[in-house]
Write a structure and sequence with these properties.
single chain, alpha+beta, six-stranded mixed β-sheet, 8 helices, 15 strands, 25% helix
């Protein structure tokens, strides 16, 4: 498949194929040596139609047995079982929840006992954090020293609310993490060229960011609409939280530019499945 990369050579993203499943990984996280991680593509599952083929959502109308088989397949490829997964309950909040082994299976093999959670953190090995996407931004956080991890879903509301920074602060509070020791990956999501937003969204960012920064995050088109750079906004949120620039890996692939490879809500006009980000301490 011809993948459209935003940067030639894509040194920050690796395409993997294992057990018939194609997924993405990130050298910055691989080099920590303490995590299992991945970001799914559309390839390697059993779902059909608009969900073809690696759909990881039980809530979009797909056959639940097909979705469970997809979870089994990606788990086999990455090295975990579905009953180790802890799922978010994404509603575009900035709420962060600490989870552990007692939460494993939530959202997969049993109902979640929580709601409105867009970020998960843990310091317990073999607990697989999972968040879900089809244009929004996945944020991975790893502290190699404290052996703690975080995974956050950042749409425009989460980004303007600075969920990346809030997740870092939660890891500081819960695990004693220091921002300058964290490694962060801003994962595959919609790029600025594809992300048209209305004036009300632009106004929300204008209120949340300093004028010079806001001007770098978006530009106004002749028709009055704006193009928004979520990637750079997430990076700025991490920098504000105290992360070092060299510890932040930026995206190299846009979901909307690659609708046959990655699910995109915008490209499909909402007729799609879900991608997933996974992160686990070894």
């Amino acid at each position: 498949m011809d993948i459209r990369w935003k940067q030639p050579g894509h040194p920050r993203t690796r395409v993997n194929q294992r057990e018939g499943v194609t997924y993405l990984s990130f050298p910055l996280l691989e080099n920590t040596g303490i995590v299992v991680h991945g970001f799914t593509t559309r390839l390697g599952g059993v779902s059909r139609g608009i969900y073809e083929s690696m759909n990881l959502s039980f809530t979009r109308g797909d056959d639940p047995e097909a979705v469970m088989e997809n979870f089994r397949r990606i788990g086999c490829a990455l090295g975990f079982a579905p009953d180790q997964i802890v799922c978010s309950d994404q509603t575009h909040t900035v709420n962060v929840r600490r989870v552990g082994r007692e939460d494993c299976g939530n959202g997969i093999t049993r109902p979640r006992p929580y709601h409105d959670v867009d970020a998960l953190i843990t310091n317990e090995p073999q607990t697989v954090l999972a968040t879900f996407y089809a244009d929004c931004v996945p944020l991975y956080l790893v502290d190699p020293g404290k052996k703690a991890i975080g995974l956050a879903h950042s749409g425009w509301r989460g980004t303007v609310g600075k969920i990346g920074k809030i997740t870092v602060e939660a890891m500081e509070r819960e695990f004693g993490c220091r921002p300058e020791q964290l490694c962060a990956v801003i994962g595959p999501s919609i790029c600025a060229d594809c992300y048209e937003v209305s004036a009300d969204v632009a106004d929300a960012f204008k209120k949340a960011y300093a004028p010079k920064l806001w001007e770098r995050l978006m530009y106004r088109r002749a028709d009055g609409k704006y193009q928004l750079n979520l990637w750079e906004a997430c990076r700025e949120n991490f920098l504000e939280a105290g992360l070092l620039p060299e510890h932040i890996s930026m995206p190299e692939i846009c979901t909307c530019c690659n609708p046959d490879f990655l699910f995109s809500h915008r490209a499909s006009k909402g007729k799609r499945g879900n991608l997933a980000a996974f992160l686990m301490l070894r």
